[in-house]
Automatic annotation (TrEMBL):
CDD domains: DUF820-like (cd06260). InterPro entries: Nuclease_put_TT1808 (IPR012296), Restrct_endonuc-II-like (IPR011335), Uma2 (IPR008538). One of its GO terms (molecular function) is endonuclease activity. It holds the Pfam family Uma2. This is Uma2 family endonuclease. Keywords: Endonuclease, Hydrolase, Nuclease. Residues 14-181 form the Putative restriction endonuclease domain. The lineage of its organism: Bacteria, Bacillati, Cyanobacteriota, Cyanophyceae, Oscillatoriophycideae.
């Protein structure tokens, strides 16, 4: 008789208790995905620089209109608290001090991929669709493109668009804002 391994899945409350009690610390690069504590890939120079670039572009366009999170947690359900690279959130006076952002607070999530594009699509973007995040951008450094995911469903995003340099991006929740893919990616390939 073959037996499978049983995994112990954690809730957000249990995950936060581990942080509060020092079991997990700021030095542990982990996130809670579907009840599992998952180690995150180290952040390389290209990835870090790209996140900073995108944040600067978004601040330029959106300062005072939204709250911008950079590698901050979002609480999607009772078993998932990922750390997207960038989150655009409804403005709140307490800047989410009383609670992490929930799906209804999220206007846009941005993930940056230099070595993790397929994993981001299979794990994070699927998770975001399951939790009804209305829009996600996957900024692929190697492909020099931005994939825009909209119309979430239980089967993933129904509308996916891949944009290249020279094309224009807009944010579904802020239709008066337009920027170019070139602004998001920066000048030339990051090395």
């Amino acid at each position: 008789m073959a037996t499978g391994l049983l995994n112990r899945l954690f809730t957000i409350t249990e995950y936060h208790a581990m942080i509060d009690n020092g079991i997990l610390t700021e030095n542990d690069r982990v996130e809670l995905i579907k009840g599992e504590i998952v180690y995150m890939s180290p952040i390389g120079r290209r990835h870090a620089a790209q996140v900073k670039r995108i944040a600067e572009v978004l601040y330029r366009y959106l300062l005072g209109r939204v709250t911008i999170g950079v590698q901050d947690p979002v609480e999607l359900d009772n078993h998932s608290e990922p750390l997207p690279d960038i989150s655009l959130l409804q403005r709140r006076g307490d800047f989410y001090q009383s609670a992490h952002p929930q799906p209804e607070d999220i206007l846009l999530l941005v993930e940056v991929a230099d070595t993790t594009a397929e994993t981001d699509k299979a794990v994070e973007i699927t998770l975001y669709a399951e939790n009804n995040i209305v829009e996600v951008w996957l900024v692929d450094i190697n492909a020099q493109s931005v994939e825009v995911y909209r119309e979430p469903s239980g089967n993933g995003y129904q509308r996916i668009q891949r944009l290249q340099r020279g094309q224009t991006l807009s944010i579904l929740a802020l239709p008066d804002i337009e920027m170019t893919v070139d602004e998001v990616l920066g000048e030339g390939m990051l090395t």
